[in-house]
Amino acid sequence: MAGVALVSGGSRGIGRACVRRLAADGFDVAFSYRSDEQSAVELEKEIAGLGTRVLASQVDVTDPDAVSEWVARTERDLGPIGAAVTSAGIIADGLVVSMPTARWNDVLRTNLDGVFHVCRAVAFPMVKRKSGSITMISSVSGVHGKAGQANYAAAKAGIIGFGRSLAREVGARGIRANVVAPGLIDTEMTAGLPEPVRRKMFEQIALRRAGRPEEVADLVSYLSSDRATYVTGSVVEVHGGYGG
Ligand code: NDP
User: Fold this and answer.
1) Which one, 19, 43, 123, 209, has the greatest CB density within 10 A?
2) For residue 87, how far is its CA from the centre of ligand 1 (angstroms)?
3) Residue 205 forms beta bridges with which residues?
4) Measured in angstroms, how far is the CA atom of residue 172 from the centroid of ligand 1?
């Protein structure tokens, strides 16, 4: 299949692993970042060095107009988007009883509104072409809940309801929409966790370790490919056996 893939939040962590994997799968890739230009430029050079067409863009997913413009520019410069991945996300943990409204809003705006903005923008041309695949990165926190992460869990659970609904809306047009819910993955987002907290978390993971971004990207690669033509409206967990 291949063609053009678009990844929001592709400059670091899970998004970067998706950019690398989708490029290896033969896609030309457009990816976005918010502020870390250095990481974005480094990745852009790396991917271009493979002979793949690649476009890095500074696009804040909370800005719907900027997202629409990014999607239109990608289609103009690289061609029709066949696979889209939403990975842009933040955490701002805190207990509900003391959570400032701004912290709630920031997380919901980036992690849920941002997904809506990207999916709306890519789904429109996909519907017209009657093909495409959309993969949204949620979290086990959105499936199971997590103390101290109510804002994050609410956004990630929202993605699950949104993604399943989107799949029902666009399925008749041959478009697939799926949600991936990772567990603890080693990225900058989780790098600040104190070692004792990590060890405690490992006790709840059957494989007793954190996942690698590439292990999430493998799943995204599958869902974005023609190997997954009957997979839609699914929530696929990738967490090394989390729970209990
Ligand atoms: P990182 O912090 O490593 O990377 C986050 C990426 O999102 C960066 O590219 C960042 O850009 C971008 N980003 C953040 N805010 C915005 C915004 N407003 N607009 C555009 N881009 C933005 O995070 P991870 O790779 O760990 O996480 C990726 C996704 O996976 C997130 O949705 C996260 O919630 C989810 N996830 C992560 C897990 C983990 O354990 N790491 C577990 C489960 C889910 P910039 O560098 O410019 O800030």
Assistant:
1) 19
2) 6
3) 242
4) 31
Strand partners, 134: 84, 177
Nearest 5 degrees, angle CA 22-CA 29-CA 185? 50
**Å from CA of 146 to ligand 1 middle:** 18
Q: What is the DSSP letter of 42?
A: H
Catalytic residues: 152
Q: Is 201 in the pocket of ligand 1 (CB under 6 A)?
A: no
Contact 136, 123 (CB under 8 A): no
pLDDT tens, position by position, for the chain (244 residues)? 689 999 999 999 999 999 999 999 999 999 999 999 999 999 999 999 999 999 999 999 999 999 999 999 999 999 999 999 999 999 999 999 999 999 999 999 999 999 999 999 999 999 999 999 999 999 999 999 999 999 999 999 999 999 999 999 999 999 999 999 999 999 999 999 999 999 999 999 999 999 999 999 999 999 999 999 999 999 999 999 998 6
CB-based contact 84:4 (threshold 8 Å): no
